[in-house]
């Protein structure tokens, strides 16, 4: 069989990982002649997407030990992994590290991941503050994300619902989530 280039190796790795064959993906990764940033990020993303956030985070540290700095795509996978793992401290550290350590400007999507992380961790006021102070204009989806995490805080949920409804009155999501919150009273 002819030698494969890095794109072929990474494509095969993603194919195995996305079809649920993570062990084969790892085996292939170990056989790759050059484990570049793209291959590392593909493996990290695969772990994050199938519900193995701890493995994704461990791989990110291993990637750095092997001399690869995380890029924007890596952080876009790591932040949701922190959220799904409930790892607030690491998620906040990653967001701060993007700029301070790596010179990367966090995207709106990455801020949204941290809003979700704060909400999942029960830090609704901090999540609301982040939505209000992030360097991007909040959209209805940001408030809906917050609203979806405020099921036990009716007053807080109403505030998030109002923001979402003001920004996107035609979207049923905020109305449904607010209804779910108020029926728990």
From TrEMBL:
Q: Name one Pfam family in it.
A: PPR
Q: Give one GO biological process term.
A: RNA modification
Indicate the secretion signal residues: 1-25
Residue ranges that the Swiss-Prot or TrEMBL entry lists as coiled coil: none
Q: Which UniProt keywords apply?
A: Repeat, Signal
Q: Start-end of the PPR repeats? A: 5-39
Molecular function terms, GO-annotated:
RNA binding
- Entries under InterPro entries matching the protein: PPR_At4g14850-like_plant, PPR_rpt, TPR-like_helical_dom_sf
**PANTHER family referenced in this protein's UniProt entry, alphabetically:** DYW DOMAIN-CONTAINING PROTEIN (PTHR47926:SF533), PENTATRICOPEPTIDE REPEAT-CONTAINING PROTEIN (PTHR47926)
Q: What is this protein called?
A: Pentacotripeptide-repeat region of PRORP domain-containing protein
């Amino acid at each position: 069989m002819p030698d494969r280039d890095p794109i072929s190796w990474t494509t095969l790795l993603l194919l195995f990982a996305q079809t649920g064959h993570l062990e084969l993906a790892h085996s292939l990764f170990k056989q790759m002649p050059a484990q570049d940033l793209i291959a590392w990020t593909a493996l990290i993303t695969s772990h994050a997407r199938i519900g193995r956030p701890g493995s994704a985070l461990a791989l990110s540290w291993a990637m750095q030990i092997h001399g690869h700095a995380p890029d924007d795509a890596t952080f876009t996978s790591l932040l949701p992994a922190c959220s799904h793992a409930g790892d607030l401290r690491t998620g906040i550290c990653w967001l701060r590290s993007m700029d301070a350590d790596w010179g990367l400007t966090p995207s709106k999507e990455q801020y949204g991941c941290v809003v979700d992380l704060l909400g999942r961790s029960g830090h609704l006021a901090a999540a609301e503050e982040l939505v209000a102070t992030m360097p991007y204009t909040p959209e209805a989806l940001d408030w809906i994300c917050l609203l979806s995490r405020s099921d036990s805080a009716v007053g807080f949920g109403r505030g998030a619902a109002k923001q979402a409804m003001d920004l996107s009155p035609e979207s049923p999501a905020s109305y449904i989530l607010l209804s779910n919150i108020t029926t728990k009273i």
